[in-house]
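sorry to bug you again but im stuck and you know this stuff better than me. theres a chain ive been looking at and ive put its sequence and its fold in token form underneath. id like you to explain what the token line says about the fold, in plain words if possible. anything you notice is useful, everything is just below.
___
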Amino acid sequence: MLTWKEEKTIPANIEKVWELFSDENLQRIMPNVVEHTPIEKKEGVVGSTYRQSYKEGRRIETYTVETLGYEDKENEKHLAIGFNLAKAFEIQTAFTLIKIDESKTRFIYEGSNKGINFLGKVMLKIAGDKNNNKVVQDFMDTVEKESLVNATS
């Protein structure tokens, strides 16, 4: 199983960063997500499900994402999701934003990727921590870049 927890200070208002995690803006920070359609939206958000498709090269994987945690307070925002990918991986991620001041936000990205069958376990061993760390850093950099674009608009 791979796990991660990374933090970054983003020079943008917490609300501008949070907007990027909305259904309408998700593709700005996750460009390989080619579909994100609500299946069932629950009151309070937790338990809501979405049909999501992810494109890697020519291949498209479709899966169901469930909202596991959600908090939208003035000084702290939190979104946790989980999904199974390709019947091989169980993935859980959480995004937490903490307001430092009006123009700075602490972004915490944590998660886990667990192989749920033999193939998934082998593929995680082959991919290793180094590749996972690059994916995590690239995502965090994208959130920061889009937050700065968002902050000026």
In short: Helices lie at 14-19, 26-29, 118-152. The chain has three helices and seven strands. The longest strand covers residues 59-72. Residues 78 and 96 are 4 Å apart (CA to CA).
